[in-house]
Amino acid sequence: MAVVSRGFGGRREPTEKPLPPGQFLTEDFPVLSAGPTPNVDESRWEFSIHTETGEAHRWDWAALQAMDAEDVSTDIHCVTRWSKLGTGWRGVPLDAFFADVETEDDFVMAHSYGGYTTNLPLDDLLDGKAWLAYEFEGEPLAPVHGGPVRLLVPHLYFWKSAKWIRSLVTQADDVPGFWEQNGYHAYGDPWLEQRYS
């Protein structure tokens, strides 16, 4: 069952910046979730990357905070048709996590606390395209928006920016995640309006 906050409905407002097709501008930050919000305390949070060799690379909250973080200003676009422009995030680029990870796989499955999954090409997480974000607009990321840490992949529809991120598992094939198994597009480019399969 989806949970929707106020601000979910809206109308297209005039904007100087073009929006992807079919999107409307919102000033709110609507919430859409597939289930209840997990309560993940920072002291229990851990992120891991698992490769085809069975090797696991792990980081806890202290390790995340010790890494070089970036401030990211970006637009976000939800498959449910809202767009929010110029959002401010702070997080660690995925490139830093993959620096010592060796894999021949071309895809990953993102796993979240609470059981949510989504599939992504590995190339869409590297070269400055994605972050593990833990702040939004200068404040700790609220649980309802994916805190303590969410994946941020702003060039794709926002369901690909998995909330409550727990791990990435590399895959040779593009196996669909939760929403993709339920009819959402395997890739999700908002500029191509890749909403559904």
UniProtKB/TrEMBL annotation:
Residues 1-24 are annotated as: Disordered. This is DMSO/TMAO reductase YedYZ molybdopterin-dependent catalytic subunit. Residues 35-179 form the Oxidoreductase molybdopterin-binding domain. PANTHER family: OXIDOREDUCTASE MOLYBDOPTERIN-BINDING DOMAIN-CONTAINING PROTEIN (PTHR43032:SF4), PROTEIN-METHIONINE-SULFOXIDE REDUCTASE (PTHR43032). It comes from the Bacteria. SUPFAM superfamilies: Oxidoreductase molybdopterin-binding domain. Pfam families: Oxidored_molyb (PF00174). It comes from Sediminihabitans luteus. InterPro entries: OxRdtase_Mopterin-bd_dom, OxRdtase_Mopterin-bd_sf.
